[in-house]
Predict the 3D structure of the following.
Amino acid sequence: MSSEQELICVSPEMCQVVEQAQRFAATSATVLIEGESGTGKELLAGLLHRCSSRADAPLYKVNCASFQESLADSELFGHEQGAFTGAVKRHDGCIHAAGNGTLFLDEIGELPLATQAKLLRVLEENEYHRVGSTETLRMQARIAAATNRDLRKEVAAGRFREDLYHRLDVLTLHVPPLRDRPEDIQALACHFLRRFGNEG
């Protein structure tokens, strides 16, 4: 299987993951995508979104590893003008930007612990506040999160909240590493050879 987004699956293991993602798309439950870097987690999130009833709404992708720790809350939830030094105008944040579509939180294991606590409350109540505001806002988006870490080990090490892990781990897609699916390596190589050959 392939698509314009270059999600390639030939191996039975990966095809099973793709079929599972298509089934998960029929629900609004939170999905956690686990796998090594470069295994197609972001592409699976895209498939999950395109196959869902939210396909006409935004798929908003954000890499949690790109957040400065002091600004992570602002990036996710937004902030009011004057909420902190440098907040010269209101910022709506990622949750608002996702609308009633899908918010894809890549590298969720990199999220600061303080922000993890706030995200937990959002998942529990579907409500949040912009930094510096008391106005209660509703989250409309579905959450899909991805990690290249073993979050169970991160929980044991005190780097990830156990309660948030269980909130995220409602439906889980385990993406097998490429080294365990040689059929896909060959298919990917052929795909990119054709693609770059056509571009030349």
Notes: The chain has one domain: 29-194. The chain has a mean pLDDT of 90. Residues 182-199 form the longest helix (18 residues). The radius of gyration is 18 Å.
